[in-house]
Design goal:
Elements (H helix, E strand, L loop, with lengths): L10 E3 L5 H18 L3 E8 L2 E12 L4 E2 L12 H14 L19 E3 L6 E3 L4 H8 L2
Antiparallel strand pairs: 1-3, 2-3, 3-4, 5-6
């Protein structure tokens, strides 16, 4: 079953993309949606800092039949972890991130409170930053 563009979903034809290009993009995206049974997605093409094209497909919320829009915010869950790890390693390769430095060197204002379930108190991340850095960034 093909997921077509949902009526009312936002679309913007942009300067620099021809109708033939947008049709080819739409066909390719629809094929991926069909092949992988994706309930909904939003896609945009940005070139040289300018939005060239955007389209929403399917449903953002299947259970409640909420159509996807180009402005839909999707939960990405743990997908951000490998993306962040790759970005950190790229910064390390460029000499802009020292993997052996304490976390607070790069995020001095970071204040994360951990609940101490045993004592009911709170622990600041600052005291644990070095240990956490060793676990996360061996």
């Amino acid at each position: 079953m093909a997921l077509a563009t949902v009526p009312g979903a936002e679309v913007r034809a942009a300067e620099g993309l021809s109708p033939i290009q947008t049709t080819r993009i739409d066909t390719a995206v629809t094929a991926v949606i069909d092949r992988h049974h994706i309930p909904g997605l939003s896609i945009a093409i940005v070139a040289e800092g300018e939005l060239r094209w955007q389209q929403a497909y399917g449903l953002a919320d299947v259970e409640n039949s909420v159509p996807a829009r180009t402005t839909t915010v999707y939960r990405i869950a743990s997908v951000s972890k490998p993306v962040t790890a790759v970005a950190a390693m790229q910064l390390a390769e460029r000499g802009k991130l020292d993997l052996d430095a304490p976390v607070h060197k790069y995020a001095p204002a970071l204040v994360v409170i951990l609940t101490n379930l045993e004592g009911g108190g709170r622990l600041g991340l600052g005291a644990l930053a070095d240990d956490i850095a060793e676990i996360v960034l061996p």
